[in-house]
Amino acid sequence: MSSNFVHDKAISANSESPNLKFRGINIGDCRWTEGFWADKYRLCEEVMVPHMGELLKGEVGHAYNNFKIAAGLAEGEAKGMLWHDGDFFKWMEAAVYVYSQNKDQKILDDLDEIISVVAKAQQEDGYLHTHVQINGTERWRTVTDHELYNCGHLIQGAVIHHRVTGKTNWLDLAVKNADYLFNVFSPREERLARFGFNPSQIMALVELYRTTKNKKYLELADIFVTMRGSVPLGLHDTVPYWFTGDQCQMKTPLREEVEAVGHAVTGMYLWSGAADVFAETGDQQIIDALDRIWDSATNHKMYLTGALGQCHHGAYDDQNMVHEGFIDDYMMPNSTAYNETCANIANAMFNWRLNSIKGESKYADIMETVIYNSALVGISDDGKKYFYANPLRFNHGQREYSDHADCTESADREPYIECFCCPPNLVRTIAQLNNWAYSLADDGVVVNLYGGNELNTTMLDGSALTLTQHSDYPWQGDVRIEMGECKEDAFALYCRIPGWVSGATARVNGVEVEDTVQAGAYLVIRREWREGDVVELNFPMTVDWIEGHPRIEETRNQVALRRGPVVYAIETPDLPQDAGILDVYLPASTQFEVCTNDALWGGVTVLKGDAVVRKDKAEGMYRKLNAPEYQTFDAQFVPYFSWSNRGTAEMTVFLPVLWGQ
Question: How far apart are CA 100 and CA 161, in angstroms?
Fold first, then answer.
């Protein structure tokens, strides 16, 4: 079957999608060369991906063993969560992205061996789920078996592997699996309508359509979108209690939805898949619904860090129990916020797609917020330990997420989390982030993310383009873009002006651009470019004090600190002895010094200034207020993503303000 495919090596995900303003560059066209993301990518290549492979192929992670057992190559029990196959495929996909940069043959050889085992585990009709096969349980028994989630990551990884390598051994398995799914789900049986919980398969099927040009995969993706909300909520009585309500966005058909509801990960996966369907079909009802959902999630339920999922368990209304999900507008707890790493990453995935559809920088702003804050916090500075939940405040003993996060009374990241969905999701995101740095417009090239990199790409009209970006972003706001090889005809350079900036400037060859440089928009510089032309952008980086909406009760009279795209926090290693995080106040008169701390993440920018701790202690849930006693100390605020790298600590992003101090 694979002989029918034309190999478009390393082609972008949406290069031919008809309903987009921006399209992706080809995989590997951009390389990080210096600075923040070059350092993170190097850690990903040298530590994150190899270390995770050792975990998942060994006895700790056991994922590879599950495939060997299902293939009849070993004996044993299925271990890990029911979605562990998908976790393994995500790690494989991350390895492919690394290969796209370093061309290390050992990576391909390792993947070939793994793919051969997966092929033996796959059943003749295309079905693959190691837990179901090993345990001999019934297929399509309950939505929480995550069969379609695993299929989605099997297919997604296979498409990327084929685009980068030209090989079809993994793609053949994906096609076989997708054909099986089409046979099962295209009849649209009511009993299967709620399946696709955590629907990675929608994005994957659209990608498979883009690669094979077989329209039945796009048709199936659209079926999965349409099936959501098409049957009564009580259809499945065998699922756990927290799935009986609108847990997986089933109360309202997607095209009629007006807000972000349900499980934050399943929602963002569903809406990302729906965005991909729109990119191919132009279904106006889909994009209208996604606009409403985006507004609800972003402007009413998203944390300052770009995180989503306000609660572990909660109630949305009188019918709907939700798990790891969205609750009411402006109900934003800090210390009990769930903010699963996967949900935060999926938020960036969704906004990447909307940025491509709309060509509006507000979506790229959210991508940037997530990657510097609520995504990167999920992994330690050595690349070997992980967070699952990411609150904005941690008080010892206050939260307990032991069922998924393996984190009871400790704020420490874990070397292995039994529910292992987040770590490989984050690692594959870091491994592919270079592919999000730029997009292509019909009339030029788009700069989405800043940092030291080189772009060597082909524009949509077929002309070659190279450029180099130099910047110490996000620590400094100066960006220098040098034009290399380019066509003689005029074309546009779209430069994202971040929404957080005030007073941004832009120059071309030393001359200030005449157009208004507007925060929260793309600055479009259209001209006849020549090799050696230089664009200089300056984004002043002030320390901004951020307050919440008045309806966010938990942050009333409190502020957070943000500099550029980076949100800051304070943690107990930087407090006076015996002080807790709840003792700290921020005087309104504090002026901050910006400096580098080389002991954190190999060097991060920190903020130093006066803060105070309250010294008087009182007992009881409620007590009479006497004049407080304060002690001033030299405070250090660290990037939120870097907290908990210096031992067990308490932490907070928001602090109460002392006015008049």
Answer: 9
pLDDT digits (tens, 9 = 90+) for 460-478: 999 999 999 999 999 999 9
In a domain, 175, yes or no: yes
Q: In sequence order, what are the residues at sequence separation of 6 or more whose Cβ sits closer than 8 angstroms to the Cβ of residue 98?
A: 44, 45, 49, 104, 107, 431
d(CA 615, CA 634): 16
Q: Using the 8-state DSSP alphabet, how is residue 600 labeled?
A: S
Beta bridge partners of 605: 596
Distance of CA 314 to the CA centre of its chain: 23
Terminal-to-terminal C-alpha distance of the chain: 73
Which runs of E-coded beta strand occur in 265-388?
A: 311-315, 321-325
Please state whether 653 falls in left (phi above 0), alpha (psi between -120 and 50) or beta. alpha
Q: Are residues 247 and 371 in the same domain?
A: yes
Cα–Cα distance measured from residue 198 to residue 194, given in angstroms and rounded to the nearest whole number: 11
Asked if 438 and 455 touch (Cβ cutoff 8 Å), the reply is yes
Q: What is the CA radius of gyration of the chain?
A: 25
The boundaries of the domain holding residue 486 are 440-491+516-538
Query: CA-CA-CA-CA torsion for 215, 217, 218, 222, nearest 10 degrees?
Result: 130
Residues 142-169: tens digit of each pLDDT: 888 899 999 999 999 999 999 999 999 9
Q: How far is CA 455 from the centre of its chain?
A: 23
SS3 519: coil
CA 407, chain centre distance (Å): 21
Domain presence at residue 498: no
Domain count along the chain: 3
Cα gap 447→457, rounded to integer Å:
13
Does the reported pTM lie above 0.90?
A: yes
Q: Closest Cα partner for 569 from 627, 646, 481, 625?
A: 646
pLDDT score for 245: 62
Closest Cα partner for 196 from 258, 262, 124, 119? 262
Q: Residue 452: helix, strand or coil by DSSP?
A: strand
Q: What is the CATH number of the domain that holds 199?
A: 1.50.10
